[in-house]
Amino acid sequence: MKFVKMHGIGNDFILVNGFKEQMPPNIPLTAQNLCDRHFGIGADGLVFLLPSEKADIRMRYFNSDGSEGEMCGNAIRCFAKYAFEEGLVHKESFTVETLAGVMLPRLVLQDGKVTAVTVNMGKPSLDRDKVPMSGSAGQALNEPLRVLDTVFYVTALLLGVPHCVIFVDDVEGIDLGKYGPAIEYHPAFPRKTNVHFIEVLNEHEMKMRVWERGAGLTLACGTGACASLVAAVLNNKTGRKAKIHLPGGTLDIEWALNNHVYMTGPAQTVFAGEVKDVSLIK
């Protein structure tokens, strides 16, 4: 099975052209083994490019723990760049079928090369029943949540996948390895959640650290950056457009007046290779 390794500001993925390559019989196990950073290739997720009956192309995304994700913001930028460069699509703007709905990436080209990708990530769902998050009906906005030995004030929303956003004074002072998994698996989130700690620098900039559902500590989360901007606007902390600084790099996010969230950022190809045994049983 041939593959390419790509990353979006440090959030790294294995991409497989499903138009040419045969799908492995046990995709969750394949994702776990290929994403293993010691016994496999190493990545935060495994991505398949496939034909679609409702869009120009289809994306299936699997986290490093083998679970299938509805969508991934950094992965879809890599997906869009690879699809264009491999000739699977021939337009600068096209539709991608995902489990979170049809997404709309638009390529930023310079001299015929993809330098960045802007993605219309759709509309955020603020109703806690949609996230989902337990509790009374309505929005979960700056709501206290006891986690281990601490009470955090959280804002929860759905943007492709569930997100829990927490604003803090010093994002580097948070023990993400301790609180990240505790919030991801918190009983308040029946389908688990992505966890984002945010330090607001000014009206147009934020600093962010991520604990991703199904992947753990990562250098970036595209959907999470989008969700964090929405949460910041709802909590009157920033304007509707901001730069989100993550450990792996910076994303430009805008929550437009049409209620759609737009993400712009780079995608980089690292290397290409071939897996001789897709089972890679350790």
TrEMBL record:
It is an enzyme of class 5 (isomerase). GO terms for biological process: lysine biosynthetic process via diaminopimelate. Substrate binds at N11, N63, G73, N74, N194, E212, R213, G222, T223. Transmembrane segments: none annotated. Its EC number is 5.1.1.7. Homodimer. Belongs to the diaminopimelate epimerase family. This is Diaminopimelate epimerase. It comes from Thermanaerosceptrum fracticalcis.
